[in-house]
């Protein structure tokens, strides 16, 4: 944020402007490639887990009423 404030002329926050050249010159820290790849793999695993969770939740919507019906009708 300090780099942006230095590159932006103006007295107040909403009146500040930032040119493309100054914006491109601001350093942006980036994790090493190996850590980026591990994060990407972790994100994929999280996505797969969420899909599985959604699938199971969908099945439970149908199983629980059927189970309760059988339990209360004496067919369990």
Textual characterization of the structure:
With 76 residues, the chain is an all-alpha fold. The chain folds into two domains: 1-29, no CATH class; 31-76. 70% of the residues lie in helices and 0% in strands. The chain has three helices and no strands. The chain has helices at residues 2-7, 20-25, 33-73. It is elongated, with a radius of gyration of 27 Å. It starts with a helix and ends with a helix. The model has no long low-confidence stretch (mean pLDDT 88).
Summarize the structure in short.
With 76 residues, the protein is mainly alpha-helical. The chain is 70% helix and 0% strand.
Question: With helices defined by DSSP (H or I, 4 residues minimum), what is the helix count?
Answer: 3
Describe the sheet with the most strands: none
User: How would you state the average pLDDT, rounded?
Assistant: 88
Order of helices and strands: HHH
β-strand number? 0
* First-last Cα distance: 64 Å
